[in-house]
Amino acid sequence: MLFMGLLSGLAICFGIPIAGLVMLGRRRKGTGRAFFLGVLAFVISQLLIRIPLLGLVLPQYAWYGVLQLNPWAYGLFLGLTAGLFEETARWAAIRFFLKEKQECEHGLAFGLGHGGIEAVVLVGIPLLGMALQLLAGKTALLFVNAGSLFVSGMERLFAITFHVGASLLVMYGVRKRKPIFLLAAILLHTLLDAAIVILPAVWGTGIAEIEVYTALMAVATLFAGIRCYRTKKAG
User: Fold this and answer.
1) Which residues contact 233 (CB under 8 A, 6 or more apart)?
2) pLDDT under 50 in the chain at which residues?
3) How many other CB atoms sit within 10 Å of the CB of residue 32?
4) What is the pLDDT of residue 140?
5) How far apart are CA 83 and CA 87, in angstroms?
6) Which of 42, 77, 156, 192 meets the CB 3.0–4.6 Å disulfide criterion with 119?
7) Do residues 122 and 27 make contact, with C-beta atoms less than 8 angstroms apart?
8) pLDDT, tens only, 124-175
9) How far is CA 122 from CA 32, 112, 117, in A?
10) Which of 133, 117, 161 is nearest to 6 (CA)?
11) How close are the terminal C-alpha atoms of the chain, in Å?
12) What is the DSSP letter of 173?
């Protein structure tokens, strides 16, 4: 069961982005570039800017310590900064480097790249290490169970789904020159990430309920993004 949990998580983190890219590449040129730009958008906005700020810079200020004591304020702060950094990075990458590649398939590929690299960094690489330990017979070093691995994999699936939807919204907004879609993506991102802090701290919400909320937000965002491209005016 432990191996199956690891396998399912690895399939989600590595398999879905790669398989999606291959399928989209057969349908539309430029999806590889969009995918790679999605990867860069996450790496630059999160790994190189936001996470170092949250972990190294802001802890030096007293107000940040006080902020962390209030789950509402802290949750909204984390959600808003995630939305601002990631969605602005999406917008910049699409606006300046995908000027002629803004079809639905490009948005899907961009989101797979963005959500895929996040899944690989946060979950995929640790799972890969666990799988190698398991294959080497070092099961005593694994302090996890199949259930937690399955939850981690599903959480990444929902996150990838959200990133694909948000990428479609932002790309559509760039294509139609309507900033309201960027603002919508920032708001949705804020609501998604803020709840992960607020729900358990304020209402004692469990993991299952949080994952249900995440799934609903992800599906709603994806539906909104696809809906934009299916309207008669999408062009």
Assistant:
1) none
2) none
3) 14
4) 52
5) 6
6) 156
7) no
8) 999 998 888 877 777 655 667 778 888 999 999 999 999 999 999 999 999 9
9) 22, 15, 8
10) 133
11) 48
12) H
